[in-house]
């Protein structure tokens, strides 16, 4: 079978791999139709993502078709169109036993810690496949991105009327925007990239945006949109250690800061004058839960999440190597690139 592999830093390699075998009990064989490209894939390609080693076949945001199921599989049938919950958890560790499957102590994220879906067919645990009904394969590939934002907003426990500040208007920030709006919060989106904020306004119909300048005007802008107050919940989706450190400054007293972006840099922040004095809460947000996937499928099906603005770029499997560097270049305008695998 054809596959695309990231063989080294900024190096793609087209390879042939053996055909997959028959699925074992509890497994399914699926055909990969679509793959969404996300920041994780870009970080892996650039050699900047933790938990990743070369060489690796990427692909964890997937729209797939069920071809064959193993014994004991009841949640899916041959022919089903599905999205993939790519966090392959052990089911036995303390985290899994407590229902925290998203942060399994032995997690193997498909396409990051093990070879993924940028190939024709793969075998997956059947319980990681969620039937998507009438959704397109493009939409199915978008579910995992949305799930990351869903979990982050849930971690922050955003409530109706509360000020929710989202730092970073990339795909994860935009997914958090979707769920903060569904929570009926007063949402504000901030970024240092004017082009991304224009996308938020023009394509997503959202006007409460702030182009961060790194000075006191940022606080004034947050108070302007926040009815004179700072943010009750901050979701930092930048993965930038400077932004993650400064996020505390934007929090109201008793506020909650959620880190959904990832950095390998050390973080330093003022404890007594800001974090302690305001009695802030810091939360990490990793991956998503199974229930997030089924919820998102329903929301898209019901028209409560409009996926049309998301898919900004597209390429066939054969064209990926030629266009990938263009997709990740500054100013490319990519929000979500979709690869047509088969």
Automatic annotation (TrEMBL):
Oxidoreductase listed as a keyword: yes
Enzyme Commission (EC) number: 1.1.1.-
UniProt keywords, alphabetically: Oxidoreductase
Gene from which this protein is expressed: yjjN_2
Origin species: Neorhodopirellula pilleata
Extent of the signal sequence: none
Domain Enoyl reductase (ER): 7-339
Matching PANTHER family: L-GALACTONATE-5-DEHYDROGENASE, L-THREONINE 3-DEHYDROGENASE
Name of this protein: Putative L-galactonate oxidoreductase
MF term (GO), any: oxidoreductase activity
Superkingdom: Bacteria
Top EC class of this enzyme: oxidoreductase
């Amino acid at each position: 079978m054809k596959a695309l592999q990231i063989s080294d830093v900024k190096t793609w390699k087209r390879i042939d791999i053996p055909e997959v075998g028959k699925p074992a009990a509890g497994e399914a064989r699926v055909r990969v139709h679509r793959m969404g490209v996300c920041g994780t894939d870009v970080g892996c390609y650039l050699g900047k993502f933790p938990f990743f080693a070369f060489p690796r076949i990427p692909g964890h945001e997937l729209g797939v078709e069920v071809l064959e199921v193993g014994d004991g599989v009841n949640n899916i049938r041959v022919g089903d169109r599905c999205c993939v919950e790519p966090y392959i958890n052990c089911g036995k560790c303390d985290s899994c036993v407590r229902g925290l499957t998203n942060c399994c102590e032995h997690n193997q994220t498909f396409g990051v810690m093990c070879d993924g879906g940028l190939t024709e067919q793969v075998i997956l645990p059947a319980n990681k496949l969620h039937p998507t009904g009438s959704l397109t394969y493009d939409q199915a590939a978008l579910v995992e991105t949305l799930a990351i934002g869903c979990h982050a907003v849930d971690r922050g426990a955003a409530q109706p009327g509360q000020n929710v500040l989202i730092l970073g208007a990339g795909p994860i920030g935009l997914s958090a925007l979707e769920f903060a709006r569904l929570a009926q919060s007063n949402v504000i989106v901030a970024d240092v990239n004017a082009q991304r904020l224009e996308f938020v306004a023009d394509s997503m119909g959202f006007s409460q945006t702030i182009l961060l300048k790194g000075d006191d005007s940022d606080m004034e802008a947050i108070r302007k949109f926040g009815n004179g107050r700072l943010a009750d919940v901050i979701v930092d989706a930048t993965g930038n250690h400077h932004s993650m450190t400064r996020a505390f400054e934007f929090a109201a007293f008793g506020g909650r800061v959620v880190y959904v972006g990832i950095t390998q840099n050390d973080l330093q922040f003022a404890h007594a004058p800001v974090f302690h004095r305001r009695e802030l809460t810091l939360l990490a947000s990793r991956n998503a839960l199974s229930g997030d996937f089924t919820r998102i499928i329903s929301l898209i099906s019901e028209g409560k999440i409009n996926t049309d603005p998301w898919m900004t770029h597209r390429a066939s499997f054969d064209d990926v190597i030629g266009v990938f560097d263009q997709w990740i270049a500054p100013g490319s305008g990519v929000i979500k690139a979709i690869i047509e695998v088969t």
